[in-house]
Specification:
By secondary structure, the chain is α/β, with parallel strands linked by helices. Helices cover 22% and strands 28% of the residues. The radius of gyration is 28 Å and the shape is flat.
Length: 305
């Protein structure tokens, strides 16, 4: 099992996602002889998981059942242990697109946090790219490094425990893209520029406050970055449902022989069946509530030097 390669069978040491329902999932480290308790009963790793195919339907001890899914960055984002506030798929998708990441890209990131974005970056740049990620907090850096190795992507990432605003990323002239998610990103802009390749690249900064965005944009402009832009992504999910609507009544259809027949011979038309007065169709309705502001994404381009 790897977060960047798909495996058919569940093996000991894998991290699998146990799917109990649309709003209920949990990551499980598969170990010989271990058991996992769920509301549907016990899952025995030796007999219920190891050797089974990912996506299998597993029956628990109480008779209920769950699905066991292969881990992906998207599933990890909604199941990971939160050591910090994290980025979610809506913002992550825009970041990976706007940074123009692809297999073989070299990326610098700070800070690592809980590793939500890191896993998405690693899948995008695999198998030949590399991620240099910097985390100020020592315990978070150690835990992130441990998770990367457990998820079998350790060969694609280098974790450094240092202050990116003072010490930079630990590399010079190698990055195709840089991502900043720190309290004062403007202090790290010069280090981001130094880490990027001479032929240029893209940089992104995530900030929750507009005052942070203003100072970051000023620093980017001072360092010679171009195409500076800021956007905010708001997800609005519509509800699809089936509705039955009445058809309008335009009165009886005109008869072709009405002009030649007398009014006394005309019989009133029978009303159509009730089912013919309705139509069933699919429609969408906007949400009554939706998630609000998460943060601002500021992008810029380093020109060729």
């Amino acid at each position: 099992m790897s977060f960047v390669e798909y495996s058919e069978l569940i093996q000991e040491g894998d991290v699998a996602i146990v799917y109990l329902g649309h709003e209920s999932m949990m990551p499980v480290k598969v170990q010989q002889g271990a058991q996992t308790q769920t509301r549907y009963g016990v899952i025995r790793h030796s007999t219920d998981l190891i050797g089974q195919r990912y996506g299998s339907k597993v029956t628990c001890s109480k008779g209920g059942w769950v699905y066991v899914l292969h881990p992906t960055p998207e599933l990890w984002t909604v199941n990971l242990p939160h050591r910090t506030q994290i980025l979610y798929t809506t913002d992550i998708a825009n970041i990976t697109m706007m940074l123009e990441l692809k297999p073989g890209s070299v990326v610098c990131e700070s800070g690592t946090g809980s590793g939500s974005l890191s896993h998405a970056i690693l899948r995008t740049i695999a198998p030949t790219g590399h991620l240099h990620t910097v985390e100020f907090h020592q315990q978070r850096a150690e835990k992130a490094d441990e998770e990367f190795k457990e998820h079998r992507v350790g060969h694609l990432v280098t974790v450094r425990n240092q202050d990116v605003c003072k010490e930079g990323f630990g590399v010079t002239g190698v990055a195709d893209a840089v991502f900043l998610d720190i309290p004062s990103p403007w202090e790290a802009v010069r280090h981001a520029k130094a880490a990027m390749k001479k032929h240029g690249g893209r940089v992104c900064s995530f900030s929750p406050c507009i005052e942070q965005v203003q100072r970051t944009c000023e620093a980017l402009a001072e360092q010679g970055f171009q195409e500076i832009s800021t956007l905010e992504v708001l997800l609005r999910v519509h509800d699809v449902r089936t509705v039955t609507l009445p058809l309008p009544d335009f009165g009886p259809a005109p008869s072709s022989s009405s002009s030649s027949s007398s009014s006394s011979d005309t019989q009133p038309a029978a009303p159509p069946p009730a089912a013919h007065n309705q139509v069933t169709c699919k429609t969408t309705t906007p949400p009554r509530e939706m998630a609000g502001h998460t943060g601002y994404l500021t992008f810029a381009t380093k020109p060729r030097t």
